[in-house]
Amino acid sequence: MTYRAPVTDIAFALKHSAGFGSALAEGLYGDLDEEVVDAVLAEAGRFASDIIAPLNTVGDRQGARLKDGIVTTPDGWKQAYRDWAAAGWNGLSGPTEWGGQGLPHAVNSACIEMWNSASLAFGLGPVLTMGAVEALAAHGNDGLKKTYLPKLVSGEWTGSMQLTEPQAGSDVGALRTKAERAGDGSYRLTGQKIFITYGEHDFTDNIIHFVLARLPNAPAGTRGISFFLVPKFLLNADGSQGPRNDVRAHSIEHKMGIHGSPTCTMVYGDHGGATGYLIGEENRGMACMFTMMNQARLAVALQGVAIAERSTQQALAYARDRKQGRASGLKEGSSAIIAHPDVRRMLLSMRAQTRAARAICYATAVAIDRAHRNADELSRQAAQERASLLTPVAKAFATDIGIEVSSLGIQVHGGMGYIEETGAAQHYRDARITAIYEGTNGIQAIDLVARKLPVAQGAAVRGHLADMRRTVERVGAANNPAFGATGARLGEAVDSLERATSWLLGRPLDDASLAGATPYLRLFATATGGAFLAEEALAAARVGSEPEARIAIARFFAEHLAPASSGLEREVIEGADSVSDVALA
Amino acid sequence: MTYRAPVTDIAFALKHSAGFGSALAEGLYGDLDEEVVDAVLAEAGRFASDIIAPLNTVGDRQGARLKDGIVTTPDGWKQAYRDWAAAGWNGLSGPTEWGGQGLPHAVNSACIEMWNSASLAFGLGPVLTMGAVEALAAHGNDGLKKTYLPKLVSGEWTGSMQLTEPQAGSDVGALRTKAERAGDGSYRLTGQKIFITYGEHDFTDNIIHFVLARLPNAPAGTRGISFFLVPKFLLNADGSQGPRNDVRAHSIEHKMGIHGSPTCTMVYGDHGGATGYLIGEENRGMACMFTMMNQARLAVALQGVAIAERSTQQALAYARDRKQGRASGLKEGSSAIIAHPDVRRMLLSMRAQTRAARAICYATAVAIDRAHRNADELSRQAAQERASLLTPVAKAFATDIGIEVSSLGIQVHGGMGYIEETGAAQHYRDARITAIYEGTNGIQAIDLVARKLPVAQGAAVRGHLADMRRTVERVGAANNPAFGATGARLGEAVDSLERATSWLLGRPLDDASLAGATPYLRLFATATGGAFLAEEALAAARVGSEPEARIAIARFFAEHLAPASSGLEREVIEGADSVSDVALA
Description:
The structure is a homodimer.
Chain A: H1 7-16, H2 20-25, H3 34-52, H4 56-62, E1 65-67, E2 70-72, H5 77-86, H6 105-118, H7 120-139, H8 142-154, E3 158-162, E4 178-181, E5 187-197, E6 207-213, E7 226-231, E8 233-235, E9 241-244, E10 247-252, E11 263-268, E12 274-279, H9 285-321, H10 341-373, H11 377-413, H12 424-431, H13 441-452, H14 459-478, H15 486-505, H16 511-515, H17 517-543, H18 547-561, H19 565-574
Parallel strand pairs in A: 3-6
Antiparallel strand pairs in A: 1-2, 4-5, 5-11, 5-12, 6-7, 7-12, 8-9, 10-11
């Protein structure tokens, strides 16, 4: 069973729950119209389904291989990457002045989902290049931008993100890679980076590394970190390829999944130091990193949606095909297992969570677009705050459900799910990293509670709560029995979120708030995902697009997943005292 | 980080929450005393930690290999198995008349946990032999018992369980393997079995297969299934090894985990049919299968506990060692990550769920012992009903949390968790099968709701609810502030379980009850696990054995895991209508 891009669902979520439809209608994207968007999504869907998806299995089996410093990607991957870049996908939402098409981040996000459903290990590379483009465009000087952006936007070169060191993972401030001024405006970097995704590969002739390092005598911690551009090959004055820079992949990791993507240990300075160019100001590298990272966090969130979508498709196909037992109502013969209530419950849980996570991700992308494009500074600021609030929720929730859904995908297959040839196990193995990289989900929860909630005295979260209340009211007003208890259960979820939010906002940040951060994030996502699905259901009834099915999935979410909210609220508000070390001695 | 058997915790759970202590005191096990039990557990812990645990990694890397019909197990495994059997572990609770030691199932269950913590793939094999012993001892004729039981009890031969066929997984009644009467009292089997664990291996000179097959003209479905003993090598009249039987391993599966254990496709009848011997009566094979299966289900439940325990140990060790960031209260330098509240929450969740699942499994084992050993028929019957009720709960809950805990184990390790060399990923891969084999967890939930609850008008579940109410009262009466909200939260969980139980018992079995079966089982386990941990905490306070730590873990469970109960209750009672196929079209 391969992947077919769910272009209709994707477009529907984009327009009706993520708010892309109204943004388009109000002219946020200039003269861009729905037809163009639909055409782009359809074409992306074809490329993902027809070209990339068939490479996913070979990627897992062969993996990326390192020999004599050279990484070879799996059969067919290099050509697929080049075709993909040549078709313009890398620069879809890239800046037009550097050759990008300037399309909305929201549309690019939908495409990122599709590339990653087709193959997580393949889709991961471009995501890092796009983050690097964002950071360089925002913080680089004109010379660097002119030299590097066109080829990074086109995908002729890729960008890598180099933060982690053995002693500096979540604690990025502990990094030790050194950068010393060379006297000619450039720097010389020495040190080691680990877990560098696509740090070395054979897709492109050059690779541009974006590296965090520390200047001599820099302040300790994150205030002493600077951000550098370090090309694999230096460039001659005319822009042609110059000598090899003093950076190399020393080894690649043997990982549980995403085998096709090389994860490298990079060594800087075997011969005195790799030449690097400062981006932004000295000791201000964290700002650049966050620009790159926020984009990448949403992309990883989309990976969660992507693997959940692919797992759901595969499980649904199997459940329709596999006959086993006899469901109630059938007189003789055996039933497809989809007819059994417990299997249906699993499949509905998969679909409902996938769509909820998708809606949250796309809504985040629209907020990012608004933060850049809204007419006035105040509304750009508000949109930025909304994007900041939603980004950790999208990242942690979508990747958590990506793991849960891919696990259900195995379960639906029974014993066949555990056999590698079936493919369900690869999704499960691939998905597991997404809760870890680009900031573990625990870090996302802390970011939400410690940094994002308190902004403007909680204005963004209060606005979001008010939006959800309106959704709950609209569900009630629809007065449609097909919604069942959707309104009631969502209303209770929003109540729980509101109380937990007030509790957090009403106290200083301390160990008690941090102890509840993860259940708080899950509560936030549960209420939000449920509200977004209800919005889709209401819109479907309005425009007549599969209303029964969309109402049914919103209802399933409200009646089966939203009821967890009261328990999550308790964990946040009453659970801190029991997160003690007494039982871990 | 290797495994150290937590012998103290194991003995404590056995005695104080599982009811083994009072069974011992009242003489259920004759003159067996606590000292002997402690000595057995300590020795098993040494064997598991020192001999088996070091073989776990090589088992994963090498896997079992098949060549020319011969399976080679990983380096060191054959010798370890032979040493293990020679030490008498295989027959620990085996029938004394056939050479077993006749120790309690409860003690053997504790040992099974340890073998499987040390290596799931290794521990899996003996579990099947033990189930086969049980079935043969209960249903076989004297001749078969005399011939086969001594060497199956000693472990000189192993037993395999052969049920599944391509079209007959959960639906065992759909099996097609044929058995024809040979005229001499034996049968000739032809057909194919799949997913046969240790169907072929190099540990022992002979392997005794226990095979479900269908006689000519047998009734359709499960009423036409018979149970056969089919040795790999036939025996000569003097009991010595005779000719090879007509059964062979045709291939072994390429699985996501438990690589060390060969999972075979078995072919019967290349040369006219494998010789088999009927166990029990013709067409009454299901009863034999359930004898074998119930034992195996509890053993798989113990695998869930086992992998959770090992994952927790490894994550704890890492979290104490790995420094990253600065926790509140620390002025300078960096903290071990265990000091961060979110990491502590993960570790506590791991430990609390592991111990809750352990208590449920051991309580099931004690109920099995009572079903065999209680003085009068009525109390044996009651114990049997309790064992039957708890078995599906133990199997599904313990394996589900085994998966969840091993996933948290990866998360605590951050990026290192995704690297195979760390070992956390192997636990996660190994654990995933346990929710599938010996009856998927969905089948367990259906078994609980459809077959186990209604027995004797719910007498067993009502007795269990009353037990838990008493625990809640005792927590209240203890009047110890260290319990926090333990009593309140557990009381609510028991309320939820009681309402959901009454709802299920008050209606005919239909799609609505089946739709809620999985959340019902989770609710059942949550209330039960919480109550058992509270019992351990109360006992710890009474006998002065780590009371602070045991109260803290009971409290964490009650305040963080038990609050899910209200949502689970809603799913059961109000969720059925939304488990429809409307959204899956």
